[in-house]
Amino acid sequence: MNTITLRPDDRHSVIDRNLYGHFSEHLGRCIYNGIYVGEDSPIPNVNGMRTDVVQALRHIRIPVLRWPGGCFADEYHWRDGVGPKEARKRMVNTNWGYVVEDNSFGTHEFLELCRQLECAPYINANVGSGTVREMSEWVEYLNSDGDSTVVLERIANGRSEPFGVKYWGVGNESWGCGGNMRPEYYADEFRRYQTYCRNYGENRLFRIACGPNTDDYEWTRVLMERAGRFMDALTMHYYTTTGPDWEHKGKALCFTRDEYYELLKKALYMDELVTKHSAIMDRYDPECRVGLIVDEWGSWHQVEEGTNPGFLYQQNTMRDAVLAAIHLNIFNRHCERVVMANIAQTVNVLQSVILTEGASMVLTPTYHVFDLYKAHQGATLIGCDVKADVSGTGEWAVPDVTASASEKDGRVTLTVAHLGMDAPAEIAVEAPGLRVAEARVLAGEPHAHNDFDASPVGIAPFADWSAEGDTVRLTVPPCAVLAVTLDHA
Ligand code: AHR
Predict the structure, then answer these.
(1) Rg of the chain over CA atoms, in angstroms?
(2) For a pocket test of ligand 1, which of 24, 237, 312 has the largest count of ligand atoms closer than 8 A to its C-beta?
(3) Pseudo-torsion of CA 281, 285, 291, 295, nearest 10°?
(4) Residue 344: CB within 6 Å of ligand 1?
(5) Closest C-alpha to ligand 1, atom 8
């Protein structure tokens, strides 16, 4: 029997909405076809943005969107993507499939997308092959209303008011595709770049430094020691894979029982990563002023057969949905330090919430997890103790359930990931003074997924619960994600 004890009086930090953020790179069919089809497309669009995709993302209340990369960010020169489209520079996207990038989706298009989504833009600037001046002028172009040539350029391109972009990343994976730098070198580069990113008007920039890859704790230590006082946040990237090494990753749709548990066990590693990087940050920043941003996370499987290997297109099953729920429970629980997280990537790339093909759109199981969890956005984390049974075996043994809980406007939301794939989870929830108002579930056989011919995976009302006094007993199906709303009695 699993037990979960809710402690509504034990109130922690507010869960930043931005923990439910997304990431969209110029990679494969994420931006082009997936989000942006151009004004002249027969696919219904508003100013070139697919109406179906925008509506779906608005429904899950996407709070922040990171762009233009990823590795692409450090080869992106923003001036190539502004001004009349016919005059925009063509380039080859050498990171992702060597396809032509015609820059028809640029800065103004990205901000139009964010306007339609009602989400905050997070721009990741180029350090690897860019210059301080280029980044400084991008900030000026977007945020200033001064009498300068750069601002006149923006006005000539159709926008008189400053956009007021807050979130700015200084380089991406600067330890790898962003320039193969040493932490000492990057720390100095960050200090230099951020100096010339000016605040204009009321808008205060949120300066984001490139953080570590996975468990590179030395990178975090050096960055915090040398540049901590100049940054508002530090990033961290961790992708979850199966298989012996990066070159031999497992598949999205075809996996064994062991590979099921392997992926989930590796997803749980996110907790250790966040805990250990946070502990280093605590040493240099005990007041928790600098946030940790996990701006790339999710499953990374083999590409689907017959697709361009440089496009990173993969399907998405209930196994991935449980992985997402595990991650979001971890981020919620670490909300004192973790201020943003961005799943990679929004549409048609890696662990997408949406897949498209021509005019058709599919909502993946992962999409529905974001839907189930959206009540946590901006809520206060509350005490939630979990005593879980064990599922899986040997090396890949995992807790049967993980959970997190929050409260907003007098309503408590409890979310549960049920990792076990063989049997229902019996869970006794101690919920003093609380009564269940609603429960919803996403469940399915681990390989279950949605595709262009059928979408069997979706959220359903959950009725398999009973209450006696302050105890709620749940019987949760195997491989499932549950959201329970509780009111004060
Ligand atoms: O999300 C795909 C790639 O993974 C990103 O471009 C890069 O930052 C990371 O290595």
Answers:
(1) 22
(2) 237
(3) -30
(4) yes
(5) 70
User: What is the tens place of the pLDDT at every residue in 291-305?
Assistant: 999 999 999 999 999
Residue found under tokens 């034990």:
10
* CA 425 to centroid of ligand 1, rounded, Å: 35
pLDDT on residue 486: 98
Q: Give the three-class secondary structure for 118.
A: coil
pTM attached to this predicted model: 0.97
- Does 25 contact ligand 1 (Cβ within 6 A)? yes
- 296 carries an active-site annotation: yes
**Which residue in 15, 2, 112 sits closest to 404, CA to CA?**
15
Residue ID of nearest Cα to ligand 1 atom 3: 70
Q: How many CB atoms lie within 10 A of CB 214?
A: 14
**Tokens found for residue 465:** 């619960």
- Altogether, the residues listed in the chain come to a count of 489
The two beta strands, 434-443 and 480-488, are antiparallel
User: pLDDT tens digit string along 164-209?
Assistant: 999 999 999 999 999 999 999 999 999 999 999 999 999 999 999 9
Q: Which phi and psi (to 5°) does residue 190 adopt?
A: -60, -45
Pairing of strands 380-387, 2-14: antiparallel
Q: Which DSSP symbol is given to 468? A: E
Region at 350 (left for phi over 0; alpha for psi -120 to 50; beta for the rest): left
Q: Collect all residues with Cβ–Cβ distance below 8 Å to 269 and sequence separation of at least 6.
A: 238, 240
Contacts of residue 69, defined as CB under 8 A and 6 or more positions apart, other chains included, come to 25, 26, 27, 76, 95, 124, 172
pLDDT (mean) for 323-341: 98
- Continuous segment of H or E residues that includes residue 292: strand 291-299
Please write the tens of the pLDDT for every residue from 231-242: 999 999 999 999
- Is residue 97 very low, low, confident or very high in pLDDT (cuts 50, 70, 90)? very high
Distances (CA, A) of 241 to 12, 224, 265, 295, 377: 32, 29, 10, 17, 27
Catalytic residue among 75, 109, 296, 407: 296
